[in-house]
Amino acid sequence: MPKKALKPADSHLRSSMGQEILVQDVMTRGVLTVQKYDTIVNVAHILTERNISGLPVVDRDYKLLGIITQADVLSMLGMGKAHTVKDLLKYMLGERLPERRIGDTVGDIMTGKPQTIRPDMNVSKAVEIMDDKKIRRLPVVDEKGKLIGILTRADILRAVIKKLK
What we know:
two-stranded antiparallel ribbon; CBS-domain; three-stranded antiparallel sheet; alpha+beta; single chain; globular; about 40% helix; 8 helices
């Protein structure tokens, strides 16, 4: 009779950890947001000064309209979301890049209707969504679509480290 392979003692911990943690317990609250009529220049300043990669776009009632990222801003230069550093170097040397977005305001270039998550969902579901959709952040909304927080990969990592301590 063949011997069963032994699993590490912490394999159960790793597989169940995300099931035990709720989005509302690790999300960032008091999220910095922009509105669709804000200028792209203003957003670029916020992204660089705050060292963040994306911002939720909301209306006056905090209803989520979209998200704007560094990649969206860079797309105005002709650098598409899938472009590499090599592509950027080619652009700097005068070659054109496809997928150029044009506009002056956030609403012109933001990604509308972004993937969201509810606060009562498990972090494991958030990780699954982020992995499937190849995204780095999930706006957290209530049942009316109002933004109440954001969940980033860094938030998840902090929660995992805290749980392991």
